[in-house]
Amino acid sequence: MEAELIALASTSEEASWLRDLLYEIPMWKKPMPHVLLNCDSKAAIGRVQNKFYNGKSRTIRRKHSTVRSYVNNGAVTIEFMKSCDNLADPLTKSLAREKVLIVSKEIGLKPKEL
After folding, report:
1. Distance of alpha carbon 15 from the chain centroid
2. Other CB atoms within 10 A of residue 2 CB
3. Is the Cβ–Cβ distance between 77 and 46 less than 8 Å?
4. Residue 114: its H or E element
5. Quick one: DSSP state of residue 85?
6. What is the pTM for the complete model shown?
7. What is the pLDDT of residues 56-75, one digit of tens each?
8. Is residue 26 packed enough to be buried (19+ CB in 10 Å), middle (13-18) or exposed (0-12)?
């Protein structure tokens, strides 16, 4: 759960930075929508939604407060996504060949022909 919380913290910081960058471009509509972050850990999402962090690690507590502030400000929202629906799984985990082929087709990659 700590790894997911660290990933949510860095992702929410980058999403907020991109949101602020797009806000400065005059072509975009001004009420900037929030950035949707998908997470496959219900424990990490529940920990972020809880306003108190009762862990012992100070660095994880800081990551929790970072994500919590971005969620409270409306810069990002976090939703649950099942691992089987996550298109980033082949990039982060070792999967069976069939799952890699299915996900590769879903993201638009062409299969390698032998």
Report:
1. 9
2. 14
3. no
4. none
5. G
6. 0.75
7. 778 888 888 899 999 999 89
8. exposed
